[in-house]
Structures are given as C-alpha cells and as structure tokens.
Batch of 2 targets.
Target 1
Amino acid sequence: GQQLNQSPQSMFIQEGEDVSMNCTSSSIFNTWLWYKQDPGEGPVLLIALYKAGELTSNGRLTAQFGITRKDSFLNISASIPSDVGIYFCAGQLYGGSQGNLIFGKGTKLSVKP
Amino acid sequence: DSGVTQTPKHLITATGQRVTLRCSPRSGDLSVYWYQQSLDQGLQFLIQYYNGEERAKGNILERFSAQQFPDLHSELNLSSLELGDSALYFCASSVRLAGTGELFFGEGSRLTVL
C-alpha cells in the first residue's frame, strides 16, 4: 500500500531547542496534515495544509506543503516539556477516496528540561 | 476532549473470541472512521462510514466488520481473534463525506488478545 516515510523516528532534545521533522512519499498528496498524540490519548490535529508550497503556522509550530506535493515538514521552535509526544504526518492522496488518510509511523519527541 | 467517545477503553480476551468496540462521534459529525494502531505499523485505516453507509475500505481483515447505526454511532466487530490483533483501535469522526483530513479522534480502545 501507500507509504509515508517519516523521520526521524525519535528525537531527544533539550528544552528551548528547535525541532524539525519531515515526511516524504513517492505519491502525490492533495492534503498534508500534522497530528500529535499524547500518551493514552488519540491524535489531535495541529496543522492542515491544502496547497503546494503553503506555509502555515500555529503558535510555535510551522509546517510546509512541499512544492512537489510529495513531502511536508514540521518545525517546532523553542521546545517546552509539554511538546513531548508522538507527531504524525498524514496525507490525503491526490485522487484518493473519501477522505481516508495515510499516516506516517510517527516521530517520538522527548524533551529534557 | 475531542467529543468522540469510545468504549471500552481496555479489553482483554482470548484467541478465537469475538469483541465489539463502540464509538459515538462528535455531535453533528456524519462520517466515522476506524483506525488500528500497532507498534510496528503505525495508524492503519480500516473503514469509513458516512450517514450509515460504508464509503471506503482500507486494510480491514475479513474477520473484522463494522456498521454505523441510524443514531450515527458505530461498532467495530472483531472475530476469531488472533494474537496479532492486539492493538489500539481508534475511532475518528468528521462532518463531511469527502473530508479535508481534519479528523477528531477518540481516546481509543486497547485490545489485548492472550
């Protein structure tokens, strides 16, 4: 099936550092989304991107929809302890059916105070 | 709180058994999605219902089935359970049929098959 390659798999950083993670695919996507999952919870939408080249911010988070439509990145600036969790990219395939999403395997973020 | 309710939160059962997971979507959401999350596979789309009708199928095994009822709640039935079915099962909902990818997830049902 279709796959999203998300990297890195995990990150262990110091509080205050900036974080960058990305997703790539061999397929073209209509939509890129970034979700965060806290322990014991379901994923929560952080940012949604709908146009190639689009750059969108949500507080300290910034995400971009790649020009080729095959990739996206998420940056977190000045990380804080509550940023800990698993970050998932998700994409809706170009020409794909009915809104179901393909998820990357996640980037686990740990923040040292 | 996403507004999506899933029950039970935890379930332990034996191989060969059958279980039913229940989901109540956010008020007003017509579309319900089921996802399976296991350690090595990430989040895998299983199936989508919209206003009572099946609209999309992903990697759902034949031993699994789902339905959406007139009151819009949904149930995922897992039968002839195997050890490998142990996972977190998430329900998500959205307002529209085609959707923009903006899904609201419940807290999940953790299934352990022994």
Target 2
Amino acid sequence: QITLKESGPTLVKPTQTLTLTCTFSGFSLRTSGVGVGWIRQPPGEALEWLALIYWDGDQRYRSSLRSRLTITKDTSKNQVVLTMTNMDPVDTATYYCAHSPPGDILTGPWGQGTLVTVSS
Amino acid sequence: QSVLTQPPSASGTPGQRVTISCSGSSSNIGRNTVNWYQQLPGTAPKLLIYINNQRPSGVPDRFAGSKSGTSASLAISGLQSEDEADYYCAAWDDSLNGYVFGTGTKVTVL
C-alpha cells in the first residue's frame, strides 16, 4: 500500500523560506520511472502543480515559480523535500505531495495535504 | 492561471447524467493523455480517470472519460449524492514543460 504524508511548518512569515517534507512508503524512488510531485491549492481555489522529481533525479518545475522552488530527494529516507523561497501571503495554500508511477503523472495516491499560512 | 478550462459548476438530480468539459490546446490535451481527479469536500484529490478513459480499481463505471482533439470530457451517469465534489482535469503541457490542471468544476446534486 502506497502512502504519502506531508510535514512542515503551518505558519511562515513573509520573505521566509518554506521547507516541506514528503515522507512516503510502499514504493521506492530507486524504481525506474517513478516520481514524486508537489501540488498546492489556495483556499477555495484550483489545484496548481509545483514540481516533480523522478527516480533518476530529473526535476521539473512550474515555470512561473522556477526561481523560487527546489525539489530534492533522499532515497534512503524515502523522502522528497520542497523548498520555496521568499514566501508571500499569496502562497497560503494546502500543499500536497503525490506519487507518479511509471508512465503516468501524479496519478497518486496523494498525501492528505498540509495547510501553510503566510502571515506576519 | 490555468490553461485547461472547465465550467465552474454543473448540477443534476439523482439518477441524471452530468457532463464536464475540459478545453485545452495542442500543447497539452492535443498531445498528451488526460487525467481526472475528484476532490470531496475537505479531502485530498483522488484519481478518477487516467489515460483519457481508464478507471482505477474501485471507481464505479458510472464515471467515464473521453478525449477528442484538444478537449476532454468527464461524464457521470446515474448521479448520486456522494458525487457532490470538485472535479479537475489535468494533462502534461509540452510548451510549459509542466503539469497543468483545469479550473475545476463543482458538481452539485439537487
């Protein structure tokens, strides 16, 4: 059974850097074609894809946020970390991580999500 | 700003058929497969349809996906109260080199 869980701060101040960790089980990021991605959803708004990292280290980013995002993996810990710099109140959202099986993109499962509020 | 356009809302009475459209372009739906997600209130999205029209195990056959050209559709037949949710289409966009979601459609069962 594949499970993913997001962890990190619930409140960050403007201009700070957000670091979120996705801890997963039931699959390995050593497996060819497998990936883990991050998606966010501002309150009452639509889903927005942020980043994706594959088993071979290939990274993809949302073009509009490319300069602020970094996605890394720790295969030995079964974790994927997303950092987002220069946080702003508009970045307030629920952040999800999700599994990407070989041949598909973010078809899941997804984690339960973690709400991050940006406020001074 | 989403590049896949969906109607903001759709509704029907129990038992009716509801269809949700997803309009894209040649760089996303026109070239790549479409996934659909269901998001029940207060929960994380769940995969409903993958590769245009495939249902994961456990998804009722009341849900059907289709794709034609640069558009896709999700049909819900025999609408049930538990189908009240937000629905999102998504596809890879070759021009943006990223995954794009639709604007989302809220389905209400009257």
